[in-house]
Design a protein that fits this description.
Layout lengths: L3 E2 L18 E2 L5 E2 L4 E2 L29 H16 L4 E3 L9 E5 L9 E13 L2 E5 L9 E5 L2 E7 L5 E7 H14 L10 H24 L5
Parallel strand pairs: 1-4
Antiparallel strand pairs: 2-3, 5-6, 6-7, 7-10, 8-9, 10-11
Bound molecules: nickel (II) ion (NI).
The site of nickel (II) ion has 5 residues, from α2.
Length: 221
Amino acid sequence: YPILIVKIPFFCKAIGYRHAGRTFRCASGVEKTPKKIYIVSAMALRDIRIFPDPVLRKENRPVEVFDERLKELARDMIDTMISKDGVGLAAPQVGENVRVVTIDARTDEERSRPIVLVNPEIVEKSGDIVWNEGCLSFPGIYEEIKRAEQVTLKARNLEGAEFTLKAEGLLAVALQHEIDHLEGKLIFDYMSFLRKKLVRRELKKKVEDMKKEAKETGGLA
Ligand code: NI
């Protein structure tokens, strides 16, 4: 096999994609299925906090300083979101209680188009849509939730400039889901009493299994 040296673009430092034959995808839209990947540098993946981790319920403060630390957080969130095949991620899910959201606004399977929203705020909503939503903080759990079908929101980018975003369908659903996170609201809150009981039990078991596995592999899982 030839060794493919992947040149690492912005946002995209390689580890986590070392399995030969696996599709390598990064935030800038590079997509390849190499025979072998030569690891050039480590990707900064962050641990996803699983419900009922209290960090998911804490207050999230607005970003006031648009510095390197913010950019690093956004980069890590994008890497983490993509490595987990998530549609979106909110900062509290990686343990940071700030109002930052990343969304993978891809239009097809080929190209990933991550966007970062700082201090997002929904200014207009219309229509109804029901989507079977998942959440990286609730692995394996899905819940049908009714949301607005179209939303308009205001947010800032990583430089602090304000922009307006109009979205509909899945993108609108994902944005509402992530903005819920910034209010400490979770898919759990939309569930019936019985379903909540079941989900609590299921996730408790999952977290115990993950801890056990981490112990067996020397903490590298
Ligand atoms: Ni979520």
